[in-house]
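To: structure desk
From: M.T.
Subject: fold request, one chain
Message: Could you run this one when you get a chance? Sequence is below, nothing fancy, just the single chain.
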Amino acid sequence: MSRLKKSAGLAAVAIAIVGGFEGLRTVAYRDQVNIPTICFGETRGVQMGDRKTVAECKAMLGNRLVEFETGMRACLRNPDALPDGPYVAALSLTYNIGTGAFCKSTVRRHLDAGKIREACDAFRLFNRAGGQVNKGLTTRREAERALCLKGSV
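Reply: Done. Structure tokens follow.
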């Protein structure tokens, strides 16, 4: 069961974190690796020239976070055992790198092993776009790592 659907507070934190990292753009643009993107980093089905309202973007983000949460939860052994900080940080990472990449990641392996600190430190491995270290992703991963560590060690 979705923790975001159970807890409005947790959902609000996840939306604020991911929305803050992604930024809001209501007109489609090409991201750092040339993928058409809109709203809060949405890439699925986006065409250049697309436009959305702020309300549409917020609704889209909420729906997509629940989708990504479902995928993230499916590859974690015991997602409800995770404290809120690591849970939301992992969801933010999953939203950014995709469910498949998260499920294969060192972060996921450490979370499943109960090694929260090691999982949090492994966020730093995901700071590249197009094979190049990216300052924005490095900053995001440090913030996600800090959230992951909060209340978990």
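Reply (cont.): The chain has a mean pLDDT of 95. Let me know if you need anything else for the meeting.
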